[in-house]
Amino acid sequence: MKTLLSAFILLLSVSILSCTQQDTDQNASNLVQKTRFVTIGTGGITGVYYPTGGAIAKIVNKKRDEYGLRCTVESTGGSVFNVNAVLSGDLEFGVVQSDRQFQAINGQKEWQDAGPQTNLRAVFSLHPEAVTLLAAVDSGIKTFEDLKGKKVNIGNPGSGQRENSIDALEASGMDYTKDIIAESVKAAEAPGLLQDNRLDAFFYTVGHPSGAFKEATSGRRKTLFIAIPHTDELIKKFPYYAKAFIPVSQYPGAENTEDTLTFGVKATLVTSAAVPDSVVYAITKEVFENIDEFKGLHPAFQDLTREGMLEGLSAPIHPGAMKYYKEVGLK
Ligand code: GLU
Question: Does ligand 1 lie within 6 Å of residue 97's CB atom?
């Protein structure tokens, strides 16, 4: 009897002890959960990615106590930088051009040597982006062919637009290393350089309206959007390109009177397979359930639809996002 009693007491104390341990673990994980910070990599502050990251963070942070999640936004060099930072774990999310997402998952262009980036995951797509070329009127550039011999910014190496500029030039038989004086500065610097006569033209793949083109078209030096030729061939050759145009009415300072034809892609949100489902679920759910409020946060979002936000994704959809899409019948 005595042995039985002491065995019982021992069992009781062990279970009390382990309970306390479990509670402590639970409290600790609640605390960790409360302070979980996730960062969204965007682009230059005069682009649309930066306010896009801000819009996502604004919506998600309203529920920060519920999810134990706090989103912050970082200005970066753009799509290529964001893909790599997400894959290395430096950032949890990144806004990335749909063509760059495709190239990364398939091991093309910047990822040719490293091969397919199999940990990349898609979350949803966002606004359309147009490959946009703006020239100074006094540089004498009236058509795309006139770029020959001119000082043109094609984009910094971490940007999405750099490859689009190269593709556009090649479609017109131009080699960026020979036929133009190519500059590689960040898009945020290009408007100032153009206005200072240190650039004749610059490319930027961006949603409209954007701060960069507002700045570039409202200076003393007059400017003109230049149409990009051979877009049919580009679209045929590359599965990720589509026809697009620049809505010139959004830039009354430019000399154009008609919308300018070009090609374009979509902005998308990506993450890594290593980011927990609960985090991706929370972000997806909050943006989708508050889509009207979200659309009001930037004019480039005006045509977004929940169905459309599942188009343009080539990496596998992250299971956290997929859980939400299945719940609401979008998948
Ligand atoms: N499309 C650009 C890039 O991938 C960024 C555009 C923006 O910041 O809105 O680098």
Answer: yes
- What would the two tokens of residue 32 be? 């960790």
What is residue 330's DSSP assignment? -
Query: Of 229, 215, 203, which Cα lies nearest the Cα of 97?
Result: 203
Q: Is 153 left (phi over 0), alpha (psi -120 to 50) or beta?
A: beta
- Asked whether 49 lines ligand 1 (CB < 6 A), one says yes
What is the predicted pLDDT for the residue at 78?
98
Q: HSE-up of 233 (CA within 13 Å, CB side)?
A: 10
Dist. CA 265–CA 223, nearest whole Å: 24
Q: Exposure string (b/e) for 226-247, b if CB count within 10 Å is 16 or more?
A: bbbbbbeebeeebebbbebbbe
Tens digit of pLDDT for each residue in 221-248? Answer: 999 999 999 999 999 999 999 999 999 9
Residue 79 CA to ligand 1 center (angstroms) comes to: 6
* Of 46, 79, 186, best ligand 1 pocket probe by most atoms within 8 Å of the beta carbon: 79
Q: Please give the Cα distance from 202 to 182 (Å, whole number).
A: 9
Three-state secondary-structure class, residue 59: helix
Which residue type sits at 87? L
pTM > 0.70: yes or no: yes
Ligand 1 centre distance from Cα of residue 49 (Å): 6
Structure tokens belonging to residue 20: 């306390």
Write out pLDDT tens, residues 96-125: 999 999 999 999 999 999 999 999 999 999
Q: What is the 3-state secondary structure (H, E, C) of 146-191?
A: HHCCCEEECCCCCCCHHHHHHHHHHHCCCCCCCCCEEECCCCCCHH
Q: How far apart are CA 32 and CA 27, in angstroms?
A: 9
| Domains located in the chain, CATH noted | 37-128+266-327 (3.40.190.10), 129-265 (3.40.190.10)
206 lines ligand 1 (CB under 6 A): yes
